[in-house]
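subagent[fold] <- orchestrator: predict structure for attached chain, return C-alpha cells only, no commentary.
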Amino acid sequence: MAEVTVAVRNAIRVGGVPGGRPILFAHGFGCDQAMWRFVAPDFEVDHTVVLFDHVGAGASDLAAYDSRKYGSLRGYAEDVVEICRELGLSDVVFVGHSVSAMIGVLAQRQAPELFGALVMIGPSPRYVDEEPYVGGFSRDDVAGLLDALDANHLGWSRQMAPVIMGNADRPELTAELTNSFCRTDPAIARQFARVTFLSDNRADLGAVAVPTLVLQCSEDVIAPEPVGRYVHEHIAGSRFTRLAATGHCPHLSAPEETVAAIRAFLRS
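subagent[fold] -> orchestrator:
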C-alpha cells in the first residue's frame, strides 16, 4: 500500500498570496478546518493561508489515525511540524483554537525555527483545577464529562455544544457545532477528549520564544479568564486581549472582532 502523503493525511488546503507570510489555522476538538471560513479569507489578501484537519477530523485520512501516536498532544504537534516542512514554510503565524493552542506551543518547542508567532484562542494548558491553579473543572467534572461521552456520543454532543458555543440567542451556531461533534468518529472523539481534558502543558509555556497573543473570550466556561491570564503570565512578553465575544468559539460567533485582534497583534 502506498504511503499517504502529508497533504492527504491532513486534508491540507493552501490559499492566499504565494510568498506571503504564512498563517496556519488549527481547529479545536470536535471541529474541522471549515470553522475558519469566516476568518481565514480576510488574511488571503496578504498571507499564504494554510488550513488543515487534525487526523481523525473533517476530511483527514482516518486510516492514518494511530492511537499510540495520538495518545498525547505531541503526536498532533508532530503533524503540524510535518505540514510546515512539507510546504516549505518558515516564520509561520500559528493560530490555534482551544486545544490546538497547546498543540502550537508543543510544535514551536519541537521546531522553533519554523514559527514566528503564536495566536492562542481560548487556550488552556490544564483543564483540571489543582490548587492554587484554576483550570475551570474539578476532577469529578472531567470524569463525568468523559463518562458521558463514553456512554452516549451523540447525546453528549447535543448537550455540550450549547455550553461550549455560548450565544444561546444564536441557535444556528450551536447546531453547527453539534453537527460537527456528531460527525466525528466516536472512538477517536473519546480518545481525543481524554488527551485534551487530562493534558497538563503548564510546564511548556515558559519555553515559548516567539511573540504570542492570548485571545480570551468573555463568559467562556471551557477556558475561563483565570486560565487565559495564567497563560499570558507564563509566556514572557505575550499580549492578552479580552474579547467582547462570549462563549468559546469567537471565530464563529464574532469573526470580525477576532480578525481585528489578530491584525492588531501582527501589526505591532
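orchestrator: received. Logging for downstream: Strands lie at 13-16, 21-26, 47-51, 92-97, 115-121, 212-218, 239-246. The CA atoms of residues 125 and 241 lie 17 Å apart.
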